[in-house]
Amino acid sequence: MPSPASYLLLNSSKPFHRLPPPRVPRRLHVVTCAAPRGSSGGGGGGRREAISTGKAKKQIVFFDAAPPVSQSQPQEVERSGSGEEVKKDTAGKPAAVGGGNPALALVKRATKKTLSALSNLPLAISEMFAIAGLMALGTVIDQGEAPSYYFEKFPEDNPVFGFITWRWILTPGFDHMFSSPVFLGLLALLAASLMACTYTTQLPMVKVARRWSFTQSGDRIRKQEFSDSLPRASIQDLGVILMGAGYEVFRKGPSLYAFKGLAGRYAPIGVHLAMLFIMAGATLSATGSFKGSVDVPQGLNFVIGDVMKPKGVLSIAPDVFNTEVHVNRFYMEYYDSGEVSQFYSDLSLFNLDGKEVMRKTIKVNDPLRYGGITIYQTDWGFSALSVKKNGEGPFNLAVAPLKINGDKKLYGTFLPLEDADPSNLNSKVKGISMLARDLQSIVLYDQDGKFVGVRRPSSKLPIEINGNEILIEDAIGSTGLDLKTDPGVPIVYAGFGALMLTTCISYLSHSQIWALQDGSTVVVGGKTNRAKLEFSEEMNRLLDKVPELIGANENVVDRKSTAT
């Protein structure tokens, strides 16, 4: 008979399958915890039978496969010399913080140390002084000027105070102080300090203040800033009186807890949030605003977007930049001495369709606001002089500013009468010179430079100069406008409003009172964070109102003494 191997070789065309391994039934061991209910006989060694009672037996089941071993080891807690808890495992080694993850433990320790460093009060005060110093420096140094201005005003060959040159201003960006990296970095650092202080100090204090803390120890109450004992008094009467004084009163058995002025605990958090709002608004103004300046003669116009320049990386041009501004009229008012007292600009705003959307006459300290853009009246100038010569014209003569010492303004123009002789190189154009300090009077000189007279544009009186009749028709002024968008202004105003409100609320005293009924005596104690002298006076006044309890025997004696 062929072997199985030879059979497979001889019949290779027939498929075959590998037999699965035999299944070994898993053994199940059962240990019963139920004691036998009875036996068949009284003698030992007899067979014991379990009596069915209708209740399920408690069983412990053992399997062949052992359960997985847990990776977590029991930990012991010890205290270090500094008082900190140090967890150790069964081997006596310090346990890793953060569930055994070293990276997580390192992050937690670094976060804790960072918050502790940022919430340091001297650091926050130093940051505020540094910011105040930079703000003061920004008012001393002219802001937003061209680099050539600082080259000229702070030269290297003649430093201011012996060491301040243009490098000290342009390198750190102090020519635009309030958007410089140094200033914005200090603002960010102060904001981080405020948030760290709020998280590590103010919020835990509020959580503690909100808890209802009852005490069962009279000695603990007597250790408070104010304490007193009321013999023959009821804690219920004390609670009613405290409620009438504005306290929130809670009672648990013989103990009483009352407080008022919890808003004073929330106020420091509000102060921090208000300061964060102010700094956020200032940062948004420095990095997201636009600014521009323009001098526009009367009767001309300009497009807002043509004169606006971004001030930071967050500056985004709005659609209102397509608005066109037309100067309808520019005029000035004068003091009796002849000096300018106020100047006005009558402005009209037109949209892309040419429709007038707004019109207003602005002046100094009375700007125009439209679509988030503010137009300020800041300066004035002399644009042109309208003149008639021998009845011809009028001719608009361009007026140029003349440089003089001081802040006084002087403008001049020239009306040519004779052309220069081209054959004579030394010959000059002859004409009439006109000077003006403002728009109300014009001083005229003949072609030899001699004074001729003064005329007001509104007088319509001609004057004869070198055989020519000259009539001053009008003095055309130009308005100096500053335009800017400042998206952070509403945030700054809201922050200052919240700061004033929360600062006032922070002066409210947070007062706490504990009381314990010890027999017929009520032990009272309390404390406050402000106005400690006033708190003691208030407590004495309230405790004097607590009625004294009188026993039945004393009441009978009092009645007899009253009857006699």
In percent terms, what proportion of residues is strand?
25-35%
Described by strand count, sense and barrel closure, the largest sheet is: 7 strands, antiparallel
The CA-CA distance between the termini, in Å, is 142 Å
Shape: elongated
Radius of gyration: 47 Å
Helix content: 25-40%
> Helical element count?
13
Overall residue-averaged pLDDT value: 79
Enumerate the spans where pLDDT stays under 50 for 5 or more consecutive residues.
1-91
Quick one: how many beta strands? 25
* Overall SS class: alpha+beta
Keywords: Cytochrome c-type biogenesis, Membrane, Transmembrane, Transmembrane helix
Transmembrane segments: 118-141, 182-201, 269-290
Subcellular location: Membrane
Domain ResB-like: 123-539
List keywords for this structure.
TATA-Binding Protein; about 575 residues; 5-stranded antiparallel β-sheet; disordered N terminus; 25 strands; 7-stranded antiparallel β-sheet; alpha+beta
Give a verbal description of the structure.
- There is one protein chain.
- The radius of gyration is 47 Å and the shape is elongated.
- Residues 1-91 have low confidence and may be disordered.
- The strands form 6 sheets. Strands 8, 10, 14, 15, 16, 22 and 23 form a 7-stranded antiparallel beta sheet that branches. The chain has a 5-stranded antiparallel beta sheet with strand order 5-25-24-7-6.
- 30% of the residues lie in helices and 30% in strands.
- It is α+β, with helices and mostly antiparallel strands and 564 residues long.
- A hairpin with a 5-residue loop joins β12 (340-350) and β13 (356-363).
- α2 (102-118) crosses α6 (181-210), α3 packs antiparallel against α6 (181-210) and α6 (181-210) runs antiparallel to α9.
- Among the domains are: 121-199; 216-261 and 509-551, TATA-Binding Protein (2-Layer Sandwich); 290-419 and 429-485, no CATH class.
- The longest helix has 30 residues, at 181-210.
- It has 13 helices and 25 strands.
- The chain has helices at 4-10, 102-118, 121-140, 147-153, 167-170, 181-210, 218-222, 235-244, 263-288, 304-307, 489-505, 532-543, 552-563; strands spanning 29-32, 59-62, 75-79, 85-89, 226-230, 248-252, 255-260, 290-297, 301-303, 309-310, 324-334, 340-350, 356-363, 368-370, 373-389, 392-398, 400-401, 411-418, 430-436, 442-445, 451-455, 463-465, 468-485, 511-518, 521-528.
